[in-house]
Amino acid sequence: MWRASDTKTGNYLLDTLPPESLERLQPHLEPVALILKARVQRVEHVCFPVSGLISVIATMADGATIETGAIAREGMYSVCAILSDDTPSETAMVQLPGQALQVKARLLRKAMQEDAALQRLLLRYTQATLSTVAQLAACNRLHLLDQRCARWLLACHDRADADTFPMTHELLAMMLGVRRAGITFVAQTFQEKGLIAYSHGTMTVLDRWGLEAAVCECYRVIRDEFSRIFAVSPFNRTSLRT
Ligand SMILES: [Zn+2]
Questions:
Q1: CA 175 to ligand 1 centroid distance, Å
Q2: Measured in angstroms, how far is the CA atom of residue 237 from the centroid of ligand 1?
Q3: Looking at 75-84, 106-115, 225-234, which range is the least confident one?
Q4: 73 CA to middle of ligand 1, Å?
Q5: What angle do CA 17, 235, 125 make, to 5 degrees?
Q6: Full-prediction pTM beyond 0.90?
């Protein structure tokens, strides 16, 4: 199980592997930059972030978008690439810049067949990812925009290494599948309550506990789903009080 003192790569999935499993993969891991707003097209590679945040996005025929998953140092992109070499229908985009380690998908699939510990871990991660997609589908239909907005801001705050991170209303609207005017209204309400500050594409979380009071249960459900994979929570902030 992962412990802070054991971190070798900075990606919690990789660092949860038994040392011999990680040693076999390590020569094949290549560093790659996650550039803000860049599309992540990993058909041939699987990417293990060590910092930053990748959003998985579903796009409709009319161009409307919504986020269906978020991947940071607790995960990998994409689970599709470890299941088959088919091109996934989803797209992905970098929301917070950072660094990742990538490995050829073909090589990782082969390694999973030869290494039971690696296979168990990545299948467990796949299960958590499927649960998250189901939770987000329910959240996007059943919960209010201000609750969903708080969920998204907390998820970003967990993965950012600072209280301030790049963010625009346009991007937030794109992730939550709503009009920008709706996001502007919610952001204004949050600012008036002193929860956040927003200026020129930069978001600052001022009152994390206030955001936690505003969020729906989905934030906790998703966070706990991934935390169960590891010995300790992979999220930076764990102040959820309720
Ligand atoms: Zn929800």
A1: 14
A2: 19
A3: 225-234
A4: 22
A5: 40
A6: no
